[in-house]
Amino acid sequence: MSPVLEIRDLSVDYGKLRAVHNVSLTLNKGEVLGLAGESGSGKSTLAYAATRLLQPPGHVPSGEVFFKGKDLLSLSDKELQVLRWSEISIVFQGAMNALNPVISVATQLDDVLRTHRPQMKRPERTARARELLGLVGIPADRLGAYPHQLSGGMRQRVMIAMALALEPEIVIMDEPTTALDVVVQRQILGQMMRLRETLGFSVIFITHDISLLVEFSDRIAIMYGGRVVEEAPAGEIYRAAKHPYSKGLLGSFPALRGPRRELKGIPGSPPDLRSMPSGCPFHPRCPSAMDVCGERVPSLENVEETRRVACWLEGVHV
Amino acid sequence: MTFLLRRAVFYLVTLWAAITANFLLPRLLPGDPVQAMITKLGGRLNSDAMASLYILFGLDDNKSIWQQYVDYWGSLLQGDLGLSFTFFPTPVADVLSQSLPWTLGLVGVTTVIAFVLGTLLGVYAGWKRGSWMDNLIPMTTFLSSIPYFWLGLIAISLFSVTWPLFPASGGYAPGLVPEFSGEFIGSVLEHAVLPGITIVISSVAGWILGMRNMMVTVTAEDYVLVARAKGLTQKRIMFAYAARNAVLPSISGFALSLGFIVGGALLVEMVFSYPGLGYVLFQGIGAKDYPLMQGVFLVITLAVLVANLLADIGYLLLDPRTRREG
């Protein structure tokens, strides 16, 4: 498997507060990489920083993001603009506001084609827009509709159609189905995965809903307090999560498949950026915290061939 | 369609109410125009002349208020607004048709300029938030907080007294005949500079501030982030995704300010003795000139209604969410 996107030692600050600490992640070709974590764990921030969409006061003090041999963080604005959407597109969270309410769906789709494919003529672009809507199962006559005339599910489908308009290499899905009901969620994600098989793009799937990740992604990275605490193939995480936080997260969602089990929450609440606990950020909520946990941050180490964990319970730290 | 029909009915009812109020209000004012006229003419009127004046003005006592109201509507529909006392015996309709173009030309054009200029500056200030553009806001707000008559007097004292660059009063040089000639138009433009610039200075800040703040709000919306992620050009994002949405509240403000052009012209035209509707109204109020006041108020009412209609239509065009299907 060849990597398409490599995030190396990426840190993100909001003003003086560090939101993401030295995260390294690799997205392989054709793979669905899940990013899970509670609100404020830095998962969306990581994705926006990697694509240089972070708004001030957010900024990236260190790190590299390699895509096709180029560091996205050091591209010129012009190069970046060309690369955006044609190589990396994003399906944003809650399609409620991701579509401009006063511009028709047709124009918003057309904008992408007109900017990135200037050689396309108007009839070609219209044909492409109709084709794209067909791809996500929306009748082509809804092309002239405005966002408020569509249901939440349809808006999200339009967003997906838009994300696929230029056949990008990578699609980042940031909480793509959070505002939708469970049935529509699964329809849309199922459709997305079928499209992935035919079109062959890679996906970074960001959600707090780990049960969706277990079902739809190949590999899962779990984030907590701005750090990746565990990363492993989806099946392995589901069967035997190693990090206490991963276990807690898995225990707090009902599994849609597999044996029935009791639901448990994680006591306490996610850490505040302004007052991060010393040592491992999870230790105040961790059921198996030890003395060392409050003193030093465990680094993310390979504990198995395909699994990395940042926890003092794993014996590889010296 | 039903929506437009409902709006049309609404406007008709409003128009009726406004015209009726217009009829009643001057009659509630204390005082009597004939008395004012007598005072004006220094008491050189005999009782017969006074009686005929009362009849001429339609103020003879034997008419009930209801009869007056019916007559008022009858004349109004014929375009007859009565005779002006101030410019006796010129019909009010003539006074209005002579002064309205001046007001529309000066205040109308400057209102549009102030709106366009202020909105554009606001778009840039909001887009480049935190840059030097932000200094524009306190500066223009300071200028707009100066009372208008004071700003106008300062402009006159500086630019027509200390440095006599522009004329201080009037709509065109005395002695010129209003006609379509280069000399006359040049004179009109020259006379419009000081009042025009002071109007723009005193009103542009509101547009800048409103637009900048809406831009800041809208720029934080998801769809602007999406537009950036789509790799659109900065210009396209700024105008089609941010300013397009941010301008909506300003549009209704603009339509309202169009409606207040006529009424708002009062101060400007007093300071610069500009031959527009505001100056006429000022003179009319001084002379208890009911027909003239009624005429001016009628024009103001119509202007506000038309402006509201424009705002409705503008919103329908710009914001699809206000369109009702069916």
TrEMBL record, chain A:
Keywords: ATP-binding, Cell inner membrane, Cell membrane, Membrane, Nucleotide-binding, Translocase, Transport. Residues 5-250 form the ABC transporter domain. The keyword Cell cycle does not apply. It holds the Pfam family ABC_tran. GO terms for cellular component: plasma membrane. It comes from the Bacteria. It is a peripheral membrane protein. It is found in: Cell membrane. The keyword Translocase applies. One of its GO terms (molecular function) is ATP hydrolysis activity. SUPFAM superfamilies: P-loop containing nucleoside triphosphate hydrolases. Its main location: membrane. InterPro entries: AAA+_ATPase, ABC_Ni/Peptide_Import, ABC_transporter-like_ATP-bd, ABC_transporter-like_CS, Oligopep_ABC_C, P-loop_NTPase. GO terms for biological process: peptide transport. PANTHER family: ATPASE AAA-TYPE CORE DOMAIN-CONTAINING PROTEIN, OLIGOPEPTIDE TRANSPORT ATP-BINDING PROTEIN APPD. Belongs to the ABC transporter superfamily. This is Peptide/nickel transport system ATP-binding protein.
Automatic annotation (TrEMBL), chain B:
The chain crosses the membrane at residues 9-29, 102-127, 148-168, 188-209, 246-272, 292-318. Signal peptide: none annotated. One of its GO terms (cellular component) is plasma membrane. It comes from the Bacteria. Residues 100-311 form the ABC transmembrane type-1 domain. PROSITE patterns: ABC_TM1. Keywords: Membrane, Transmembrane, Transmembrane helix, Transport. It holds the Pfam family BPD_transp_1. It is found in: Cell membrane; Membrane. It is a multi-pass membrane protein. GO terms for biological process: transmembrane transport. Belongs to the binding-protein-dependent transport system permease family. This is Peptide/nickel transport system permease protein. It comes from Lentzea albida.
